[in-house]
Amino acid sequence: MNIQMKELELLEKIQGKYSDQEVDQIIRKKYKKWQKRATEKMSHYDKQERIFLAYKEAVQQFSDVNLPVEPALLEVIVSEDIEKTNKYVQAIIQFAFKIDPFRN
Predict the structure, then answer these.
(1) How far apart are CA 18 and CA 29, in angstroms?
(2) Smaller CB count within 10 Å for the chain: N or C?
(3) Residue 66 — φ and ψ, nearest 5°?
(4) Closest CA to 85 of 43, 44, 57, 48
(5) CA-based nearest residue to 58, from 43, 74, 47
């Protein structure tokens, strides 16, 4: 038996296994699963981008007032919520100037 005959037999078995409606249902189910995974990945990438932008902004704000940037501190204050991050950065900057008013 040659390869083409085997392929034809296999095709005939598959065609008789599922109706068009069942195939459509399987495809829809697979597509929804794929779409969900793609959405989750994009959500993760968006979150990482927001955190990166907040991190970058925090570093810039500390640099603008000549405060050293400590990675351990940034891990605590930086979040995906840039407004919250800015609030924490400003609180630390104000605290630093209270300790050493001649800092700048």
Answers:
(1) 15
(2) N
(3) 55, 35
(4) 57
(5) 74
The tens digit of pLDDT for each residue in 50-59 reads: 999 999 999 9
Overall pTM surpassing 0.85 (yes/no): no
* pLDDT tens track for 86-102: 999 999 999 999 988 77
In the chain, the N- to C-terminal Cα span, in Å, equals 87
Residue with tokens 């950065």: 89
Domain boundaries, the chain: 29-104
Rounded-to-integer distance, Cα 70 and Cα 75, Å: 9
Instruction: Decide: helix, strand or coil at residue 99.
Output: helix
Whether the Cβ atoms of residue 60 and residue 98 lie closer than 8 Å to each other: no
What string of H, E and C letters represents the secondary structure of 33-77?
Answer: HHHHHHHHHHHHHHHHHHHHHHHHHHHHHHHHCCCCCCHHHHHHH
Q: How many helices (H) and strands (E) does the chain have?
A: 4, 0
